[in-house]
Amino acid sequence: MPPIARRLAGGLAMPLGSVVLAFVIGAVIVAVTGGNPLDAYSGLLCGGLGIACSQGENPALQVSTTIVYVIPLITTGVAVALPFRAGLFNIGAEGQLLAGMMACTAIGVKFSDLPSPILLPMVLLGGMAAGAVWAGVPGILKATVGAHEVVTTIMLNYVAQWLLRYLIIGGPLQLAPGTSKSLTIGPGAWLARVLPNDNSLVIFGLPAGVFRVHTGLLLALVAAAAFAFLLWRTSLGYEIRAVGQSQRAARYAGVSVARTIIVTMLIAGAFAGLAGAIQIAGVDHNLTDIYFSDTTGFDAIAVALLGLGSAVGIVLAAILFGALHAGGSVMQADAGISGSLVFVLQALILFSIAANFIGQIRRLIPGLGRPAALPPEMPPAAPMMTEAAVPPVEP
Amino acid sequence: MAHKRLKFLGVAAAVLMLAMACGGSNGGGGNTKQYKIGLVTDIGGLNDKSFNHLAFVGLEKAKADFGIKDDVIESHNGSEYVPNLTNFASKSYDLVIGVGFLMQEAVGTVSTQFPNIHFAIIDGAGTDAKGNDLKHTNVQSLYFKEQDAGAMVGVMAGWLEKNGKSKKPQHVIGAVGGVSIPPVNHYIAGYKWAAKMEDPGIQVQVGYSNDFTDPAKCKTVAKAQIDQKSDIEFQVAGGCGLGVLQQAGQSGVYSIGVDADQKDADPSVIASALKKVDVATYTAIQNVVKGQFSSGALTFSIANDGAGYALDNLTLPAELKAELDKVQKQIHDGTLTPPADIPA
Amino acid sequence: MSESSPLAVDMRGITKQFPGVLANNHVDFSVRHGEIHALVGENGAGKSTLMNILYGLIHPDSGEIVIDGKTVHITGPRDAIGLGIGMVHQHFMLIPVFSVGENIMLGREPVTGPDFYDHSHARAAIADLTKSYGLALDPDARMGDLPVGLQQRAEIVKVLYRGANILILDEPTGVLTPQETKELFVVLRDLVKSGKTIIFISHKLKEVLEISDRITVMRRGKVVGHLTTRETNEEEIATLMVGREVLLRVDKKPAQPGAVAMKVEDLTASSDRSVPALKGVSFDLRYGEILGIAGVEGNGQSELMEVLAGTRRATGGRVVLADRDITTMDANTERDAGVAFIPEDRRGTGLVLGFSIAENSILGRERTATFSWHEFVLRLVAIRNWAMRLVKDYDIRTPSIDVAARNLSGGNQQKVIVAREMGSNPKVLLAAQPTRGVDIGAIEFIHRQIVKERDAGAAVLLVSAELDEVRSLSDRIAVMYEGKIVSIEPPDTPEERLGLLMTGGGARAGAA
Amino acid sequence: MTVLTDILHLLFTANLWQATLAAAVLLLLPALGGVVSERSGVVNIAMEGMMLTGAFFGVVADLAWHNVWAATGVAILAGGMMASIHAVVSIQFRADQIVSGIAINIFAGGLTVFLVNRIYGLQDVGHLGQSDLLPNLNIPGLEQIPFFGKVLFQQNVVVYAALVLLFLTHIVLFRTRLGLRIRAVGEHPQAADTAGINVFMLRYGAVITSGLFSGLAGAFLAIGISNTFVPGMTDGRGYIALAAMIFGKWTPFGAFIACLIFGLGEAIYANNSIIHVSPYLLSMLPYLLTLIVLAGLVGRSTPPAADGLPYVPGSE
User: Fold this and answer.
1) Same domain, C228 and C267
2) Chains B and C in direct contact, meaning 3 or more beta-carbon pairs closer than 8 angstroms
3) What is the ipTM of this complex?
4) Which of A304, A371, B17, D300 is the most buried (most CB within 10 A)?
5) C225 forms bridges with which residues in the sheet?
C-alpha cells in the first residue's frame, strides 16, 4: 500500500499545488482590483461544491448543478486526451460534440415514437457516429495528405457551429418559423434522471425536478474507464501510445501509423459525439440556440491537460472545472465579483501546470525535498503527456 | 448619456480607483422588508451595449428608488440559464428576471419548479420545449413591440429618401440584424414597412452579421450595403451593430441606433429606435415591491411609452417632425399597426 | 600566436553533476600548443561533457579553465569562440535547409546595408578559406543534399571561419569511409602545421594511435590515464578505458551454413528523397551464417535493411523467404514470418524511449497471441514475465522492467532491442549497426549473442560501418557501393582491399 | 444558380475586394506574428488572447487620453505583455507551448471581462469619437486608379501598415542576418547556440514581436474598425490567423494568401442581403474552402524543425 499511496501523493502534488498557486494569484488579482478574495472564494466553494454557503444556497442543488456540468467535460476531456496520446492535438472536440448533438436530435426527432430500449441506443450511437465522422475527416486528412489537424479541426468547429444554426434556424430541424430550436426528441430517447423529475416531490427542501443529475453520469464514467482500458490494456492503446511517442519507432515495428491516427481520431470523435448526445438526451431533449455559445469542447482541452491525460485525472479535473463553472455564477451573485474570474483562475492553473512552477518552487526551497530527477535532456513539462507522469501498467 | 466618466491620469490608476469604488457593499434597506431581486443576463453579459445593459439600468434605478437587494449573474454560456435562474429561485428571491429571448425555455422550466417565486422575462415568455407559452401564474412576460420603434425610424428613413434629404438619396436603405430571431426581425419589419409607406419605391436591404459581439463583422455587412447604394443604415445587432454606425460615419451616410439612445456611438447616428428594457425592468420590480405582480404578458409599445425613438445628431425638418408625430399618434391610437414579420 | 605558455588548454578540477550522474569528477585536462591530443573513453565516460564545458555549452559546478595561460570564464559558445576555441560536434550542428554558405557564416554573417545578409561576401570568404586549407565546398549547395563527408568539411570550415586556434573534434571519423578518414587526417596534420591545436575525441583506438601526439583516457567521469602515443599500445588504452582486460576479437567456431533462408533478386528501392538507392541488389543468405555488409554509410545499406524488414517499399526485384515472396509484405507480416530487425537508429527507430522496458519488449508484437487475447486485450502477466526473462537472459542492467528506456544507458538500450529481436527465435536476423555508440562491454556481449544466434541456426545479415566489426563477425562479406553489391569476399580479406571496394576502386576492376 | 451568378457578379466589384483586403489584414497581422514566433521555434496559438488584450487596453487608453496614437502604442504593448508571459512560460520554464497558448487565450478572455466589470462598473464601455480612431487614409493620386485605387489605396492606415509589415517581415526573415538567425534558432537551436547566437534572446524577441503584431491587430479592431471594446470581440480571429499561418506554410506571403481567402469569404458573406441563401450556409464557405484546399492542393505542411521544442542548452 505505501508505495501506491506515495505514488498517488507524488502524482497529485503537482496538479494540486498548481491549483493552490492559481488561487493565491487569483486572490491577489481580486484584492488589487478592490474585491474581497475571501468572499469570492467562499462563493466559489459554495457554488461549486455546496460547502460554506452563506446566502441560503441549497448545497445539494449546487452539487447537482456541478455534476451536470461535469458530465460532458469528462467525455470530451477523454476525446482530447486520447489523440494527445497519439501525438495529435484535437482542438475539434467542440465541433464533434455539436455533431453528436445534431445527430442525436435528428434521430430522436425522426424516430420519436420508438420505445426507449431501441431509441436510446440509437441516439447515443448516432451521436457517436456523427462525432466520429467529424473527427475522422481531420484524421484521414492528417494520415493521407498530412494536413495539420489543428487547422482542420478548427475549420470543422466553425462548420459545425454554422451547421447547427442552419439546422435550427430555417433548416430542416427548425421547430417552427421564427424559432431557433428544434422539435423535442422522443421520450424514448431521454436518459433517466437520478432523482425523479417530479416537482411535487420535495427532496433536500426543493422540488425534485431541480436536481438535474442524470444517468449520463454513469455513461461518462464508463467512457473514462473505457479510455483507461483502451489506453493501457489493449494492443490498440499500446499502438496509440507508441505512435504518439515515436512515429518512426512505431512504423519500424510494423504499426501502421496512418491507420492508428485515423482510428484514434474516430474513437476520440465518438467520445465527443457521445458527450453531445448525452447532453441532449439527458438535459435538454431538444437542440436550442443555447448551444451557439457552447464552449465545452474547448474547456475539455484544459481538462485533458490538467488531468495529465489519465482517466482518473480527467475525472478530477472535470470536477474542478465543473465546480469552477458552477461556482462562478454563485460568486457573482453573492460577492458581486464577475464570474469571469473563473477563466482567469483556469488559465493560471494551466500556466502553473505547464511551467511546473510547483517543481521550481520546490527546487528553490531545499526543505521540501528534490522533485523526481528528470534526465537533463527532458524538459520539465514533457512528462505531461507521457507515461512518466502516469502510473505505469499495473501488474 | 455621457460616457466621459474617466478622466484619470493613467490606466492603472483607473483600474484601481474605480475598482475600489465598486467594491463597496450593497446599500441596506430600511426596517421594512427588503426585497430581493435577481437578474440573470443572457450570454451577451452586462456590457453588451444592448438589452442586458438596459435591464441593469432599470435594476439600478429600482434599487435607488426602493432600496431593494439586487444581485446579478452573467451567463457565460447557454447551459447556465437554468442553473442561474434556479440559484435565485431556490434562495426565495422575490423576483427573478431573465433577460432575453434565448431564456424562454429556461424560465419555463424553472418557473414550473418554483410556483411560488415570481419571474419576469424580457423579450419572451416561459415556454415549454415546443415554444408554447406555459402561461404560469408566476411569470410575467415583458414583451416589446420592437416593430413600433422600428416603424418610427423607418418613417424617418423613408421620408428622408423620398424627399432627397438623406446624404446620397437613391431610394435605398439598409438594416443589419444580428441573428435572424424574432426580436431582431420585429425591428426590421417595422422599419421596412414604414419606409415603404413613406417612399413606396424604396429598396430595403436586410442583412445579418450572424453575430452580436464583433463590430468588425457588422461593419463589413454595412459596408456591402452602402456599396449597394444604401445611405441610411439601421443596426439591430447589439454590440456588433456598433460597427454599422461607424461604417455609416466613415462612408458619410446616416445611421440609426437600436435599443438605447446611441447618439454617442457615432456622429452619423440620426436617431435610435428605443426599446425601453430599463423601463420594463423597473416596472416589473415596482409591481413586485408594491404587491401588484401580475402574470401574463406586459407589452411595451408606443401606446404605453415603452418603445419609441430618440432624435440624435440631426436637426429634423419641420415636415418630417410633423410626419413622425402623425405616425406616432396613429400607432398610439391603433389606427396603424406595424407588422411583426418582415414584409416582402 | 603567443607562446608565453606551453599549454593551450588547461582545465583543472572540473566537476559537473547531472541529476543522478557525476559526469565529470575533478577532471584535470591539459593540451599543449600545436599538438593533436586525443581524448578517449567509453560512451558516458564524460568526454563530451568535458568538451561541452570547454566550449561553454555546459557550466561546470566547480573547477578552473586556463587558456593560453589566462584564467577564463566561459559562459557560452560566444566566449569560447572569442578565445579561439572551435568545436565540430559529433552530431553536426548544421541546418539542412540552409545553404552551405549560410551554415558556415551563421553567427558571424557578413552584412551589407542595414542588416542584409551579404551573399557575395560570404562566397568570397569561403573561397578564401577553402583555398588556404584545401577544403573545397560549394557555398550555394543546400546543406541537406551533401554527403556526410562534405558536411563534416563544412563544419571544419565553419570553425576555421571563426578564427579558431583550438579545434575540438568530437568523434569525427564515425561517419567517414577509410579514405575520407585518411583525407581528414591529412587536413588535421596540415592544420597543426599552420599552428592550430586539435583535441580529438574518439573511441577508435587505431585512429587515436595513428593521429594523436598525446592521449587522455577517461572512465566514469574521471581521468584514468595520461599517455604519450608513441609509448603506448591498443591493449593498454583499452584496459584503461574499460577497467579490465577486454577481448577485442570475437571467438567463434566456423560457420555451418545450411539451406538458403532468404533470396534477394535484383532488388531496387528509392531513398527518402526519392533518389534510387538500391540499384539491383542480389544475394543469398543461408541459415547458420553471418553475412556482413561492408560499405560506406549512405551507399544503400540502410535502404536494403529497411526493404528487407518491410518498412520501405521496393521499386522492383524480389525477396523470397523460404519459398514465400515477401517483397511487398509490411513490417508486421514479416515479423510474423520470422524476420527480426535491429534497426540502426536505436533511439529514433528501435525504441519508444518513453515506454518502459516491459512495453518496449513487445514493440511490434503487441498483437500476437502470446501477448494479447484476440489481438486486442493485452496479456499483462505474460508481457511482464517475458520482459523479466529478457532482462535476465540478456543481462540488461536496470532496477526494474518498469524503467523507461530513456533512462537506460546506450548499451542497455541496445540490449533491450537485441533481446526483443532475438528473444523470439527468428529465422532471419537483420542487424543494422548493432553496436553503434555502445560501450566495449556491451559490444562484446552483443557480438556473442549474434554468434550464438547463428550457431542456433538463424540466418544473420549484418550491416556495420565498423569494418573491424564486419570482419570479425562475418562468415562472408558483401561490399556495397552506390546501391549495388560489388563483391562478396571471404572474412579474412585484408582491410585495404575492402576499403578499395567500398570506395568503388575494386568494383571497376571486378566488373571489367 | 442565381446564388452563383450573384457571387460571380460580386467578384468583379472593387468594393468586394476592398472589404476583402480590410478583413484579411485583421487576420494578417496576428498571422505574421505567428510566422515570426514559430520560425524561431516557439509555437504560438495565443494570438487570439494577445489581440483581445490589445483591443481592450487600446480602448481604455484611448478613452483616458483621447490620443489614438498613444492608445495604439498601449494596445501594441499590451499584446507584447501577453506575449512575454507566453515567452517566459514556454522559453524560460520550457512549458508545453500549446498549453501555454491556450492558457493565454483563456486568461485574456477572462481578464478583459473582469476588468471591464471592475473599471466601468456595469456601465457600458464608452465610445470614442471619430477623431480618436485610427483614420482611413486615401492615398492622393493613387486612389484614382480604376478598381485598384479603391482596393489598395482607400483603406485604413493600419492596412497600409500591415502591408508594409508583410514585406518587412518577409525581407527580415529571408534577407537579413537577423532573419537568418531567427530561422536558425527555429530549425536547430543547438547549431545556433554553438555558433554563438543567443537562442533565448531571439526566441523572446520573436514571441514578443508576435504579441506586438497581434496587439496592433487588436487596436485596429477596437479603435480602427470599431470605436469601443466589446467583450470577446476578436471572435476567434486569432485561431483563424493560426490556421492561415499553417496554411501558408509558415511564410508571410503564404499566410497572406490564406488570409485573403478568409477575408474574401467574409466579404462575400457581408453581401448576404443580396445573396439569397441561408446566411449560415454562406458562413461556412471559407472554412469548407480551406478544408478542400488542404485536402487537395496544399498537402503536407512542414513546420520549422524545432517548432514547439523548448531549448535546453547542452542537450542534443
Assistant:
1) no
2) no
3) 0.84
4) A304
5) C217
User: Which three cell numbers mark D83?
Assistant: 506575449
Is C250 part of any domain? no
Q: Do A163 and D284 touch (CB under 8 A)?
A: yes
| Whether C206 contacts C471, CB under 8 Å | no
CA nearest to C333 within chain A = A254
Q: Which residues of chain C have pLDDT under 70?
A: 1-5, 19-20, 43-44, 174-175, 242-249, 273, 505-512
Q: Identify the residue among A28, A288, A334 best suited for mutation to test binding to B, counting B beta carbons within 10 A and taking the highest.
A: A288
Tell me which chain D residues have a C-beta less than 8 angstroms from the C-beta of C115: 172, 176-178
- Report the DSSP pairing between strands B232-236 and C36-41: unpaired
Contact present, A107 and A188 (Cβ < 8 Å): no
Contacts of D174 (CB under 8 A, 6+ apart): none
Domains of chain B plus CATH, in order, are 35-144+277-303 (3.40.50.2300), 146-274+314-333 (3.40.50.2300)
Does residue C190 form part of some domain?
yes
In a domain, C14, yes or no: yes
* Inter-chain residue contact D221 with B49, CB threshold 8 Å: no
Residue in C78, C107, C117 nearest the CB of D176: C117
Give the pLDDT score at C440. Answer: 75
Rounded Cα–Cα distance for residues C159 and D179 (Å): 22
CB A234 within 8 A of CB A179: no
CA distance B320 to chain A (A): 33
Helix, strand, or coil here: B319? Answer: helix
| Domain span holding position A374 | 2-389
Residues 204-243 (D) with a CB less than 8 A from some CB of C: none
Under 8 Å CB pairs connecting chains B and D tally to 163
Give residue C244's pLDDT.
60
Do residues D172 and D38 lie in contact, with contact meaning Cβ atoms separated by under 8 Å? no
Residue A112 has pLDDT above 70, yes or no: yes
- The reply to whether B242 touches chain D by the CB within 8 Å rule is yes
CATH of the domain at A325: 1.10.3470
Q: Could you write out the three-class secondary structure of B183-214?
A: HHHHHHHHHHHHHHHHCCCCEEEEEECCCCCC
The alpha carbon of residue B222 is apart from the nearest alpha carbon of chain A, in Å, by: 21
- The average pLDDT across A251-280 equals 95
Q: Would you state the pLDDT for residue A393?
A: 28
Half-sphere exposure of C74 (CA within 13 A, CB side): 34
SS3 A171: coil
Report if residue A142 sits inside a domain. Answer: yes
What pLDDT is attached to residue C1?
A: 44
Tens of pLDDT along C243-264?
Answer: 665 555 677 888 888 899 999 9
Q: Tell me, yes or no, whether A395 lies in a domain.
A: no
Question: Which residue reads 569525427 in cell numbers?
Answer: C172
Helix (H), strand (E), coil (C) string for A140-174: HHHHHCCCCHHHHHHHHHHHHHHHHHHHHCCCCCE
Task: Please count the structural domains in chain C.
Answer: 2
**How far, in Å, CA of C481 to CA of C175, rounded?**
15
Overall CATH class of domain D2-143+158-298: mainly alpha
| Under 8 Å between Cβ of A331 and B74 | no
Q: What is the DSSP letter of C279?
A: E
CB-closest option in D89, D243, D315 to A354: D89
- In tens, the pLDDT along A113-124 reads 999 999 999 999
CA-nearest residue of chain A to B185?
A178
CB within 8 Å: D183 and C107: no
Range of the domain at C421: 260-356+407-511
If one compares B218 and C220, the residue with the highest pLDDT of the two is B218
Q: Which of C52, C89, C107 sits opposite D197 (nearest CB)?
A: C107
Domain ranges of chain D: 2-143+158-298
Identify which of C161, C159, C85, C152 has the alpha carbon closest to the alpha carbon of residue C123. Answer: C161
Report how far residue D30's alpha carbon sits from residue A251's, in angstroms, rounded to the nearest whole number: 37
